[in-house]
Design goal:
single chain; 580 residues; ten-stranded mixed sheet; 15 helices; alpha+beta; elongated; five-stranded mixed sheet; 19% strand; 28% helix
């Protein structure tokens, strides 16, 4: 049964504050006070404790009468009252023995401040739970967590070191075998390239050859939801002719139009050399007062690197569809077919001064125009380069040149971004990932577009139909950029690009007549210049013939009487078919 607590009568003072002055009121008040309530006088400086405790267990005091003190104040037996604290005051004696059982002091000292870090300072004012966890247990848990984090960190570090060693063993190989009779003349670290700068005036067009088809604007509306299959163009010929095999460059050299000759691919490789990771090589021939920059037959410059600047290791086996070599062949195959599929192909072409200089009459050639442009390096030195554009489009009743290139996705687990899910909603994140994994390839494409003075560069996003199917692909999207704006976006400085070319040209012009090779070191950010015999790199295909299933028809004689360069389309198709 719950007890009823009666407060009693409270007298009313109509004349002011406090109890009334009349004796009768005082007597009536005294008689109405609750019984068995201990009273003790106190001053304002003293601290009060509890007034009443209704949670006390009165049964224990009744069971132990010996522990119950006698009534010291004439109040009978106060131990059964919620207002009695006499049993608790035995452990806290006061200075005045008369007040021991009528008043209780409260410990008001602040709790000790632990020295275990800042979070305890913020938590010390929070109400504590009835059952606090043991601090030793918490300390042991924290130590175990730190030890586990340390082990994970060491494990991940060892894993990354193993991957780096695999990557170096797999792809960090020299693009050309350095022979013992070669004489190394100089080595240039890439750190010196970053400080170079050179401004060139606007170039002039000496000649434009070939024919261009119009770009199909419907490809700009492709999304991953309405993807298009990538077609194959085996009947169209693609030419990868080096500098000295170009009949137009030979003619311009005989006419003394310039002293330095190259192609846009070779110049872009030099301009973007500090971003390169894979090894590459360029053949340099000094003939009289002229300088020719060439590439070897079957050079890596004809292929497109994939994941060159990525930290994710690629499979080591060369016959693996995701190895560096297989992906390079696949990327070149995709890039060629993409550049022809996005055209209108209705027979309407834009023709220029001369036809394609590498095609025979009646051959079906890819849509390409070669712009032979001349830059002035100084008063006595000019540079002529063959630059390529793949298409043309009418903008405001004016023809604009386009370069067409394709990025390829082979397995989302290597890049960490699934194009089919992110390309439409997070295109910037996809491009940022490609800039991280393929910085050198994108910089070279941008440099080639700037050299060709293209008004627009189109980047296609091409992915495999299935990650294990490297022969069938789909186009997921096409995006256009202005070359100079894109160069600023990827931090590609035009003045620094020409500064690198000018330094290499000045160095080579000081050499004697002969043949040299510029090789990017396979493991260090530097290039080396070797002096090689005059007949070097001329018998590569004789010493290492292609397998029968990869051999193509023998090359035909061109109009100049020399041997024409073999197209690469059929060879790449057969290489991919052989891998499947």
């Amino acid at each position: 049964m719950v007890g009823v607590f009666e407060v009693g009568a409270v007298p009313f003072n109509p004349d002011g504050w406090g109890p009334p002055d009349s004796t009768a009121a005082a007597v009536s008040t005294a008689t109405s006070l609750p019984l068995h309530v201990p009273f003790a006088p106190f001053s304002r400086s003293e601290k009060l404790g509890r007034i009443a405790d209704f949670t006390r267990n009165f049964a224990s005091s009744a069971a132990n009468p010996s522990n119950r003190p006698s009534s010291r104040h004439g109040l009978g037996n106060p131990s059964d009252s919620p207002f009695d604290f006499t049993l608790d005051l035995d452990a806290f004696p006061l200075a005045n023995p008369e007040d021991d059982y009528s008043f209780r002091l409260v410990d008001a000292k602040p709790p000790p401040r632990p020295k275990f870090g800042p979070k305890w300072r913020f938590n010390q004012n929070r109400p504590q739970l009835p059952q606090r966890r043991d601090e030793e247990v918490e300390a042991r848990k924290r130590e175990a967590e730190k030890e586990r984090a340390r082990r994970d960190r060491l494990y991940n570090l060892n894993r990354s070191n193993q991957h780096q060693q695999r990557r170096e063993a797999a792809i960090f190989k020299s693009s050309v075998d350095i022979q013992p009779e070669w004489n190394m003349l100089d080595q240039i670290p890439f750190s010196t390239f970053s400080k170079l700068s050179f401004s060139v005036p606007e170039p002039e067009d000496l000649l434009i050859c070939g024919a261009l088809e119009y770009y199909d604007r419907s490809f700009d509306r492709i999304t991953p939801k309405n993807e298009r299959r990538l077609e194959r163009f085996k009947n169209r010929n693609f030419f990868k002719v080096t500098t000295t095999d170009d009949p137009v460059i030979r003619r311009l050299a005989n006419e003394d139009k310039a002293t330095v000759f190259a192609t846009d691919t070779i110049l872009a490789t030099l301009m973007c050399a500090p971003r390169s990771v894979y090894s590459w090589d360029i053949v340099i021939q000094r003939v009289g007062n002229k300088l020719f920059f060439d590439k070897r037959d079957g050079s890596q410059l004809d292929l497109l690197s994939v994941h060159e600047t990525s930290q994710e290791p690629l499979p080591e086996a060369k016959d693996d569809i995701n190895s560096a070599y297989s992906l390079s062949v696949e990327a070149a195959y995709i890039n060629q077919n993409f550049s022809q599929q996005v055209l209108v192909r209705d027979g309407n072409k834009v023709s220029f001064d001369e036809p394609n200089p590498f095609a025979n009459e009646g051959d079906e050639v890819a849509s390409v125009a070669y712009r032979y442009r001349r830059w002035k390096l100084d008063n006595d030195m000019h540079l002529v380069a063959r630059c390529e554009v793949q298409s043309v489009v009418d903008v405001n009743n004016q023809s604009s040149f386009l370069t067409l290139n394709a990025l390829n996705e082979f397995d989302p687990k290597y890049s960490g971004v699934d194009w089919r899910q992110k390309l439409e909603t997070q295109r910037g994140a996809v491009l940022a990932t490609e800039l991280k994994n393929n910085a050198n390839k994108l910089a070279k494409w941008t440099a080639q577009a700037i050299l060709a003075n293209a008004d627009l560069m189109k980047l296609g996003y091409v992915s495999r139909v299935h990650p294990r199917d490297h022969f069938n692909h789909v186009i997921l999207g096409v995006v256009g950029y202005k070359p100079r704006d894109f160069a600023a976006q990827i931090n590609l400085n035009t003045a620094n690009m020409w500064g690198i070319v000018r330094s290499i040209v000045d160095l080579c012009m000081k050499l004697n007549e002969g043949k040299y090779v510029l090789v990017k070191d396979p493991s260090k950010p530097q290039v080396r210049i070797y002096e090689v015999p005059a007949d070097a790199f001329e018998n590569d295909y004789v010493e290492e013939p292609l397998p029968e299933e990869e051999q193509v028809q023998p090359p035909t004689e061109d109009a100049e009487g020399g041997e024409a360069n073999v197209t690469t389309n059929d060879v790449e198709d057969k290489e991919i078919e052989a891998q499947t």
